[in-house]
Each structure stands twice: as C-alpha cells, then as structure tokens.
Amino acid sequence: MDRVTALATLKAALLPLLLLGPTTPAAAARVIGSDAAACVQRDQPALEVSITGLKDRTGNLKLELFPATEEDFLKDDRDLTAQGRFFHRVLAPTPANGAITMCIKAPAPGRYALFVTHDRDNKNKFNVWTDGAGIASNQRIGRSRPKLSQSIVNIPRGVGRVTIQIQYLRGLIPSFGPVGD
C-alpha cells in the first residue's frame, strides 16, 4: 500500500471518531459556568458540582453559595449584599447531553451552604411546580424548606467536589424527591 492510500485509509477510519467528539472522562465532564476556570486551574477555593437526576435538559442550572448560618441561608441576595455578607451565584444553560459539572468559587476555604436549582422555564425565579432543587446531602427535601444542615459544604484551599441529585415536586401528596424514586 502506498503512502497516499495509507493516509486516505487512516483518515477514513478516524473521521467517524472525530465526528463523535471526545470520549475521555475528562472531556465528558467538561466544567461549565462562569467560574469554570477556577476548577480547571485549581488555584483558588472552589467547588466542582456534578449534577444528576435532571427531569429534562431545558432551561438553566443555578448554583448559589451562602454563608453557613441559619440567618443567611436562602436569604435574598440583595439583602445579603446590602448587609455586607457573602453570596455568590453561577448560572449556565442546561447542556443538551452528557455529564454535567459546574464550578462555583468561594472567597476563602471554609464552610458554606450550597443550593442548586434547575430553572426549567428560564424565568430566573423558583417555580415550585416546575423547577427542580438540590442540596449537598442529597436527602429528600420533602414538603418543607431545605435545612441549612442538609446544604453544608466544606470548600478546601483547592477544589472540592460534590455530587447533587436534583429533586422535583411529585406524588399524590406533592413533595420534593428524586425523579426515579
């Protein structure tokens, strides 16, 4: 086989693989969101959040990091900012397919409260009837507001990791739980 034929054969064999895209775990777990560089560079306190259990691939995903106090958890961001308290939010469009990993930066290593939402209708306001929510402990949220203790994350000097399963309102007596449960 001459050189030209060999190259043409190799090209024909590799083309389908190139069209499928990357298949390595690192490529499949591409980090998304405005803080993605912090998790990729691993040079500052941040949290890599793997999100599972989505009902569908619509809307946006939102990570919110709060101070780990009862007084501040799930408080309106404008109030926290006005009081000089820490709050940070990262939004990203829900990827059409593949594993979902988002990143959120913290101002320093320490203990924080994390809340994740799947804003399915893109209205940037939590709709209890359609949107999903997730907490760090992955305990069933049920019919009440998530508790601070269920949402605590410890962020190290580098990058920490957590997997959160999103929960949606479901059942005859509506309460939040995982889709497949």
Keywords:
181 residues, alpha+beta, five-stranded antiparallel sheet, 5 helices
The end-to-end distance, rounded to whole angstroms, is 58 Å
Major β-sheet profile: 5 strands, antiparallel
Tertiary shape = globular
Give the class from helix and strand content and strand pairing: alpha+beta
Radius of gyration based on Cα positions: 20 Å
Considering DSSP H and I runs of 4 or more, what fraction of the residues is helical?
10-25%
Question: What's the structural blueprint in terms of helices and strands?
Answer:
Layout: H1 3-20, H2 25-28, E1 31-32, H3 36-41, E2 46-52, E3 60-67, H4 77-82, E4 88-93, E5 100-105, E6 110-119, E7 132-135, H5 148-151, E8 152-155, E9 159-165, E10 167-170, E11 175-178
Parallel strand pairs: 1-5, 2-9
Antiparallel strand pairs: 2-5, 3-4, 3-6, 6-7, 6-8, 10-11
Describe this structure in words.
With about 180 residues, the protein is an alpha+beta fold. The chain has one domain (about 25-180). It has helices spanning about 5-20, 25-30, 35-40, 75-80, 150; strands at about 30, 45-50, 60-65, 90-95, 100-105, 110-120, 130-135, 150-155, 160-165, 165-170, 175-180. The strands form 3 sheets. Strands 3, 4, 6, 7 and 8 form a 5-stranded antiparallel sheet that branches. A 4-stranded mixed sheet has the order 1-5-2-9. It is globular, with a radius of gyration of 20 Å. Mean pLDDT is about 85; it is low at about 5-30.
